[in-house]
Amino acid sequence: MNDLIKKYDAWLDDEGPAALVLREHLMPVEGYDGVLFPATFAASEDKNFRGGYNVDEFPDSNVCLVDSVGSQANRIEPLFMKKDYADLVPQIVVKAGSKKVNLLEAGHRAGDAIVRCSALQKELQDAFKAVVDGNAEPLAKIAPTSLVFGVWDSRDTQAKLPRLIDSKIRAFNVQKLTRSAQYVPPVDYGAEGLLEEPGDLRDAEGRVKSKHPFAQRGFVHVPASGSHGGVIATGGIRRDATLHLAALMLLSAKEDGDKKTLALRRYILGLAMTALTCKPSSYLRQGCNLVSDPDKQTEFKLVFNNGRREDATLKHEEALAYAKVAVAAFGIGPDREVDFDLVLAKKDVSDTKKNKKTK
To answer: pTM score, two decimals?
Structure first.
């Protein structure tokens, strides 16, 4: 145990590496020329981005965002709810009505409304204030993954912690496809005299209005033409993930100085390495099932401040073993189940309205 807990201390040294970088080559399950469906995004308010796939165009190439940093974080973080990992972090559950939500599933983590408006409100507020004061230990005792995947208490203390794990998936030199479909109802409701076609069903050119209630409820033929049909990545698909060790070195504990700070950093490093080396689900969404490219090796590099790059070897099993030793040395808070507090939620909304008026 003594040897294992010290194994990565060189990574926590001021002269240590700035980051651990992973590069994993992926491919659709159908093969290199398989069609994959990237994430789609809403149009921007200024309409410069009209919505759909996020594809950046360059003179001789393009880059398509398949899965964003935020989406990747939300896919990886629930790992710590699973059997072999649950003891690494406190299991904080909020009961909201008939539903129970683990903090590991909350989109804004420790800054999410569901936990802010619960019995943990004051405790988390104090922990965020401690972060602002340079002490990350209290937050690590309650919500350590907020330190790993980043958190911003934007509705209260404004405390902000950067992501230590930064993962995203991109496809290169994509060819965009379109697809069309036609819905045919099982019965011609008009011809059978079951429903009379309303006068506002069709536009001036005789086409069915897709937003008309008859179309939305499936009573008429509805064509869907030229919608997003996925992409073919002729330049490959890659997952780039980085563990920002330089950012981890900014975390500190105020009491007991170096001793507590080292224990804190070892613990968060253990969680971060476990998260970085885990194999996320290959199934991202309908039409996007990506697996490792068997012809290309996953690359691991330690990158130093002077730009030097070294090959690194880190197995998931080794990262998990280190995390278990680190959590035992650090000591985390208890598992808890608390209720969502409607009174606190109403006050939260009321205070927001008052602050807007004051501004």
So the answer is: 0.88
